[in-house]
Amino acid sequence: AWLVPDYSFTAEDYLAVLDAHGVHFGVIAGISIFGQYNDYMLECLRRHRRLRGTVNVDPPVDRYTLQRMKDDGVVGIRLQLSRRSELPDLTTEPWRLLFRRVADLGWHVHVALEGRLMPRLLPQLEAGGMRIVLDHFAHPDVSQGLDGEGFTAVLRSIQKGRTWVKLSAGFRLTWESRSTGRPDPVAMELAQATADRLLKEAGPERLVWGSDCPFVGHENVQYADTLRWFEQWVPSREARRRMTDTALRLYFS
Question: Given 3.30.2350.10, 3.20.20.140, 3.60.10.10, 3.40.50.360, which CATH number is that of 75-252?
Answer without folding.
Answer: 3.20.20.140
